[in-house]
Amino acid sequence: MKIYHNPNCSKSNCALDLIKQQGFETEIINYVNNPPSKAELTHILKLLNKSPKEIIRQNEVLFKQNFENKDFNDEEWIDILVKNPILIERPIVLHHGKAVIARPAEKIMELIK
């Protein structure tokens, strides 16, 4: 199991706790300090079956000040997210070729059914 995690986020910490409670070995990626590459993010989006805009934290100040009401194509949004990983919704959990945004943390259970 792999979690794109922000240790400063209570929702992300809840998801990580749930994963640990389930006993899974987990690769923890602090994606704010170690953002996914463009290829990784594209792969994650495919697994999530979401567009880049659907995983943006639209309440972040950075988004509101710089990107709100702007019209970018998917590739441009991916570039923006790679350069500004704080805008990526969290946590994202991957397991056996599937992915979820674990909000709430119980969504992780969808991956282990």
From TrEMBL:
Keywords: Oxidoreductase. InterPro entries: Arsenate_reductase, Arsenate_reductase-like, Thioredoxin-like_sf. The keyword Oxidoreductase applies. The keyword Oxidoreductase applies. SUPFAM superfamilies: Thioredoxin-like. NCBIfam families: arsC. Belongs to the ArsC family. This is Arsenate reductase (Glutaredoxin). It comes from Sphingobacterium kyonggiense.
